[in-house]
Design a protein that fits this description.
Helix content is 45%, strand content 20%. The protein is α/β, with parallel strands linked by helices.
Length: 289
């Protein structure tokens, strides 16, 4: 009996060792790296471009990245409630003023990655008026329409204010950033008059001969700053990521080339981002924590 028990225990031990070896070899734990960073962005050219670039940089720093595209309002809400980590672009002091007034005490601005941004109404340069105050005089040429973007975007509410302040007999038509750009291109191709809600930085200023209409009443403000906003406590939890954002800053040419590289990437955004990084290696190196 004793020999039988010994043999049975020996066999059991070998079986356990075998199971452990199989588990060790075939079910390795998932490498979580340094953690998961949740990025939220709007479908605007500069935000899309910067999000893809930052995603590549963070993955190379051994973070997992989850990027989510949504409208401005739900992004502010999700960051304020801690469901998302970072809102890639917050425009202040004018464009997102109403959102920041509501959520500013529940988010933290961790960087300013572009200065001297601008919003306003944009027309092709061949349009012979130069000021928002002149729009009513040419209403028929514009069909009484201002082509806008997402209905929740800050520039849309500011344009509603401009319509009231200037007494414009125009309808603000909501669409999206890409749809606005397509409408602008179509009008330029046909030599038609069009007025759109526009902002800089944007690749359209490099691609088309266009201009901002003067804003004598200052409804759209002067220059804007583009910030990255994070949930409260993020900078303490992820100081390395925060340092990357704090170091990251673009001038007009740099952000323009990045947007141009991303425009039309159609699923090859990572490759486009890596190509841009290779062409701007010294700049990118200066950002790394």
């Amino acid at each position: 009996m004793k020999n039988t028990i010994s043999k049975w225990l020996g066999g059991l031990s070998l079986a356990v060792v075998g199971v452990l070896l199989v588990a060790a070899c075939g079910q390795q734990p998932v490498d979580e790296g340094k953690g998961t960073i949740k990025l939220a962005y709007v479908n605007w050219a500069e935000g899309v471009a910067v999000t893809h670039l930052v995603s590549v940089l963070l993955e190379d720093m051994d973070y997992r990245v989850e990027a989510t595209m949504a409208d401005v309002a739900p992004i502010y809400t999700s960051v304020a409630e801690g469901d998302q980590d970072i809102m890639i672009e917050t425009w202040l002091p004018v464009t997102h003023a109403s959102y920041y007034e509501q959520y500013g005490d529940r988010v933290e601005l961790i960087s300013t990655w572009f200065e001297n941004a601008r919003i306003g109404l944009v027309v092709p340069s061949y349009v012979t008026i130069d000021s928002i105050a002149e729009l009513n005089e040419a209403r028929d040429r514009f069909n009484g329409i201002i082509t806008g973007i997402d209905s929740g975007a800050g520039i849309m509410s500011t344009t509603d204010t401009a319509i009231d302040e200037y007494g414009l007999d125009f309808e603000l038509m909501a669409s999206s950033g890409p749809a606005m750009a397509a409408a602008l291109q179509g009008a330029i191709d046909n030599g038609d008059w069009i007025v759109v809600t526009g902002w800089a930085p944007h690749w359209k200023f490099a691609r088309y001969d266009i201009k901002f209409l003067e804003d004598p009443q200052g409804v759209y403000g002067a220059s804007e700053l583009i910030h990255a906003a994070a949930r409260l406590g993020f900078s303490d939890e992820f100081p390395e990521v925060t340092a990357l954002f704090q170091n990251m800053q673009f001038d007009g040419e740099q952000i323009g080339t990045l947007m141009d590289a991303m425009d039309g990437a159609d699923g090859a955004e990572e490759r486009a981002a890596r190509q841009w990084i290779a062409e701007n290696q010294a700049l990118v190196d200066s950002w790394m924590p």
